[in-house]
Amino acid sequence: MSEEAIHCPQCNSPFAYHDGAMMNCPECGHSWDAEEQAAAEAAEGAVLDANGNVLQDGDDVVVIKDLPVKGAPKPVKAGTKVKKIRLVDGDHNIACKIDGFGAMGLKSEFVRKA
Asked: Which three-class secondary structure state does DSSP give residue 86?
């Protein structure tokens, strides 16, 4: 049976063991909840909206403040609903199409999940 070694998050020791409730490190004495740590590590790479909700590809979002658009005579108004977003890497981490504006990128901190 091959089981992947769990390393201590404090000292990186490969000798951590599970005592039934918590993970423990015999080298530094650190104790932690492995499930809580795994959930935190999974959430690190997640894209969050303005309220802290995790966004995923295909979600619908609502713009929470007026956003100026370069080259457009008017801003994207607060309350505009954006359907079927795509998450991308970069500063503007949401790729979408907005009626009246076309394809554009948005920052996740200016939207909330619909």
From this structure: strand
